[in-house]
UniProtKB/TrEMBL annotation:
Pfam families named in the record: HTH_6 (PF01418)
InterPro entries for the chain: Homeodomain-like_sf, HTH_RpiR, RpiR-like, SIS_dom_sf, WH-like_DNA-bd_sf
Coiled-coil ranges per UniProt: none
Name of the protein in question: MurR/RpiR family transcriptional regulator
Segments forming domain HTH rpiR-type: 10-86
Length: 270
């Protein structure tokens, strides 16, 4: 089983690299140049990109390996699968946005409201105290996600750390796989996947989570998936991800979990 190495798009890999690296060396310069010419990269050869970046072909190959790809060809392959705006917004919504922006905003608001109401359902809220207890009692907690949900993981890391609970999160595919393989029965994996596609996209990581004996807590809209059969709890984060509204209810679900952890264990940190 070969999982996609970029857990999102190549653009996100480059942006994350530029935003987090402390060394403004030749690799940093290559990444910045690639971002400034990102839409052109898919039609360019390694030699053309090297000329654009004012480096050698070997430097481009080394940079691709530095990002986690085996070689330039693999990097170039994933450029073709890059996420574009049609991934997030439907054509009908775009047409409505151009023709009548107020109608488009009304539809968007309605979708947001439906997700918020679904996330606040009593049967959903009733799961939170026990989920908070599991997070508190675990030896290790690791957050698994991809694409925009990384930001939700980082938000949870910050909030929980203030309350003395360290949550691990890794942006790189190889580190997520290594983390999944290292967890055990005393640990918890918190998987955030709005549409429920994480297990199918990253089968090697999911298999490791299934085999390591750790507890599974899931945040998703796809509550009926057979992948969650062994999960301790599945927390709903709404009912629709049309026009990319699912990320807001996923953040809401994460915040509700933070609030209940605060209620049960955060008195000394308030």
């Amino acid at each position: 089983m070969n999982d996609p190495k970029p857990m999102g798009s190549v653009a996100e890999l480059l942006l994350n690299y530029v935003s987090t690296t402390h060394e403004h060396d030749v690799n940093f310069s290559i990444a910045v140049t690639m971002l400034n010419h990102y839409r052109e990269l898919g039609s360019m050869s390694a030699a053309e990109i090297a000329e654009l970046c004012h480096v050698s072909n070997a430097s481009i190959s080394r940079f691709c390996r530095h990002l986690g790809f085996d070689h330039f060809k693999e990097f170039h392959h994933y450029l073709g699968d890059s996420i574009n705006m049609s991934t997030d917004y439907s054509r009908s919504f775009f047409d409505m946005l151009c023709a009548d922006r107020w109608a488009a905003m009304d539809r968007y608001q309605q979708q947001l409201s439906e997700n918020i109401q679904s996330t606040f359902a009593r049967e959903n809220l009733d799961k939170l105290p026990e989920m908070a207890r599991i997070l508190h009692d675990s030896r290790r907690v690791a957050f698994f996600s991809h694409h925009f949900l990384w930001d939700i993981g980082r938000h949870m890391q910050n909030k929980f750390l203030v309350m003395g609970r360290c949550i691990e999160q890794y942006f790189d595919y190889s580190f997520q796989l290594e983390c999944a393989r290292s967890l055990g029965p005393e640990d918890t994996a918190l998987v955030c996947t709005v549409g429920g596609s994480y297990p199918t996209r990253y089968g090697n990581i999911w298999s490791a989570l299934q085999n390591n004996g750790s507890r599974l807590l899931i945040i998703t809209q796809n509550r009926s998936s057979a992948y969650w059969n062994n999960a301790s709890y599945v927390l709903n984060c709404g009912s629709t991800n049309q026009n990319d509204v699912g990320k807001y209810s996923a953040l809401l679900a994460a915040d509700l979990l933070v609030m209940h952890y605060l209620r049960q264990y955060g008195r000394d940190f308030f």
